[in-house]
Amino acid sequence: MNEYIIEMTDITKNFGTVKAVQDGQFNLKKGEIHSLIGENGAGKSTMMKILYGIYPNDSGTIKIRGEEITNITPKIAIEHQIGMVHQEFMLVKELTVLENIILGFEPKKKITIDFDKARKEIQKYIDTYNMDIQLNKRINQISVGEAQRVEIIKTLYRGAEIVILDEPTAVLTPQECVKFFEILNNMKADGKSIVFISHKLNEVMEISDRITVMRQGKFVDTVNKKDTNTAELAKMMVGREVFLNVEKKKSKVGNTILKVDNLWTSGEKELSKIRGASLEVKEGEIVGIAGIDGNGQSELIEAITGLRKVEKGTVTLEGINITNLSPLKIRKAGVTHIPEDRNLRGLNKGMTIMDNLVAVKVDKKPFANGIAQDKKAIQNFSEELIKKFDIRPNNPSALAQALSGGNAQKIVVAREIDADGKLLIASQPTRGVDIGAIESIRKILNDVKAKGKGILLVSSDLEEILSLSDRIIVMYEGRITGTMNAEDANENNIGMLMMGGNPEDAKKSAMRGDGTLL
Amino acid sequence: MKSSNKYINLLLTTLVSILIGAVIMLALGYNPIEAYIQLFKGAFVGKLNFGTTLQKFTPLLLTSIAFVISSRVGVSNVGVEGELYLGAIAAAWVGFTFKGVPGPILILLCLIVAIIIGAAWAYIPGSLRAYLGVNEVCVTILMNYVAIYITSYLVNGPLSAKTGVPQTPTIAEGAKLAKILKPSQASAGLFIAIAVVIIIYWILQKSTIGYKFTSVGLNPMYAQYVGISPQKTMINAMLLSGAVGGLAGALEVLGTYGYFLDNFSSGIAFDGMLAALIVKNDIKMVPFMAFFLAVLKSGALGMERYTGIPKSIVDTIIAIFIIFATMEDLFAFVQKRKAKKSEAATSGQN
């Protein structure tokens, strides 16, 4: 018998002139966790969307359980027991968890929906895989991690034996990740086959049985986990050696640039999200703010940059009070800012690359004479930045929405670095970008530091904080729970502060160099 | 490739709606070919007819552009009609009050006052939307009634010419714009309108003001972050939109009527808004669409006169037109199916 339940051979897929997949090979054994990895735009998601029938493939064959299937649609895929959890959740926010799961596949009792039967059936999955979900809550009342579990149950409820997970961990905190991997292992033990799409190598090494690497739409190799390591995988993904841990050089630390004193501000939902935060950034240093997402880092940065109202306390830049000034005035004072969400704030996706690059200088000469724009000057300027920061495609008139995550982020970075402020606030600068771009963005941040500017770095990636920062601040529930020099910090003591551990204990364990309490 | 598709789609929708109009005429027992010939003649043949088309075109052009301006910042200014009325009565008041002022200066004064009044009226929904998030569509629709009733009160009361007809006294001779294509009602206002549209085009496409409008319209959070105030930009766009609306009203008074007549517009600005909506606020196409609607409107008179077909049939055609234009996806769907079929055919050969 055939050992593979899925075989995808010689798949190609073009979107217009873009060759999304040129040589796609993928197979799946029953009961394995198979990771599909590659940089953004390598064609991982496209391959799986072809399998799930969202896109038709241009050529190549797909066999499910040895039987060749053509013209797959999601309906046919579901009939063949394939389920997919997308990057963006497909849930109806206003309905309850239970209603979402059975939507479209409701068990009927004459003309009414048999909720009891559905509940019993779903409870079976919850128990089997140890998934913690509350069936009666509405989707907008539950966390992202829980919503993801709902998505998984939804596929299982529809009879999926093969579950495709498209970058599932991108939205999870480290703690949720641990729980999530437990669930995956439970599913595997139950005989389900899982496709895990990711570009985070350490996760892939933790969870997979086999790993398939793709690069620029092409199949590179399929390897067993036990025969490989992260360095080798990274090399296969990027096509060359990668150096993520840039050597940390001490710069000359000078005067204080940014001083935040006893700052209070409110969040979207809670009043007083930030309660009395104080910090300093000096010339020539990178101050990293560590913390699990949602512990007030975003609000703190928004308050400093004028995007959120400061209720109490002061923000000063080189001795000048910039508290509650307009974002424009704060920029003029010398603050540049890479925002945490490039899609929401960092970019105008409907505008061209050059319009995005010139945004903060749009009123300045030579880009404007009075109110008349000088398109030629803007174009020349953009071409220069595109070359300098290696943005692809290199056409300044291309729309920003056509770019991959890494290149889109490079536009934001290019614009903010070029603005040449005194202080650079970099919020999640490498979130959702590929390894090559991570490498170059980290290098850029170090260059900025070497020039004697101050950098305030926010990242939920602890490894990034540790490898870049000179000083580290930890935030937990809107408060700063600890500050330490990079030399004293390690994953354990920072991690403990991130989860609300006692700062004193953390310090002691820092001295002992381990993560244990007491 | 994509933009040429857009034009083809528009052409297709035009043909289809004219065809459906023909079917309706047939069903009502009229000869559609005769009707369309008369419609064409009524719009183009003869000075009077062509002049009437141009006369109708002028306010349609300006009001459609007014709608396009506010749409740039993602605000729908449905209140252009109100701004048009207020601009018109303001211009009329200046025109018949300051009779001593020499002609060209008086014209300029009329236009400026109308522009200020129009902009001020649009400022109200603009600032409500920008600072308090109040839905501008509701506010502008309701404010239209307020504006129209204000003018109605004025023209029946304090500003009445006291002739029994609800209209203001005639404006000074010097304030009247030169007529073109006599004996039609068309005036040199057309050239003012075209000049204004060219200026607006430049502002929207080539200036930092237009850049800011587009930034805010596409992503206000981004605009705020790069230092463009979404609130101020929204209000600026509404001021400009209202100003153009007020100007449209003033040109009607100075060019067409010579006085303010109660209820003179009967929905010009709404037709202008439709012209903008049909072409999805594409500023390059809006003038053509406004002209096309003007042709239909003025040709309908001739059609009714010579064939007896009620001119409301033209409104039906316009309505069908809008339905189809907003159903662009229908044609996209047909094209997709065709593409699929041809794809299947070629892959079959392989």
Question: Can you describe what's shown?
Answer:
The complex is a heterodimer of chains A (518) and B (350). Chain A is of the alpha/beta class and 518 residues long. Chain A folds into three domains: 4-238, 3-Layer(aba) Sandwich (Rossmann fold), CATH 3.40.50.300; 246-334 and 421-512 and 514-518, 3-Layer(aba) Sandwich (Rossmann fold); 347-420, no CATH class. Chain A has 18 helices and 24 strands. In chain A, the strands form six sheets. Chain A has a six-stranded mixed sheet, sandwiched between helices. In chain A, strand 11 (210-215) and strand 12 form a beta hairpin. In chain A, helix 14 packs parallel to helix 15 and helix 17 (491-498) packs antiparallel against helix 18. The longest helix of chain A is centred in the middle third of the chain and has 16 residues, at 174-189. Chain B has 350 residues and is mainly alpha-helical. Chain B has a domain at 65-290. Helix content of chain B is 77%, strand content 0%. In chain B, helix 12 (286-307) runs antiparallel to helix 13. The radius of gyration of chain B is 22 Å and the shape is globular. The two termini of chain B are 28 Å apart. The A-B interface holds A 305, 307, 326-328, 331-332, 337, 339, 344-351, 355, 359-360, 362-363, 368, 371-373, 375 and B 203, 206-209, 211-212, 214-215, 218-219, 221-229.
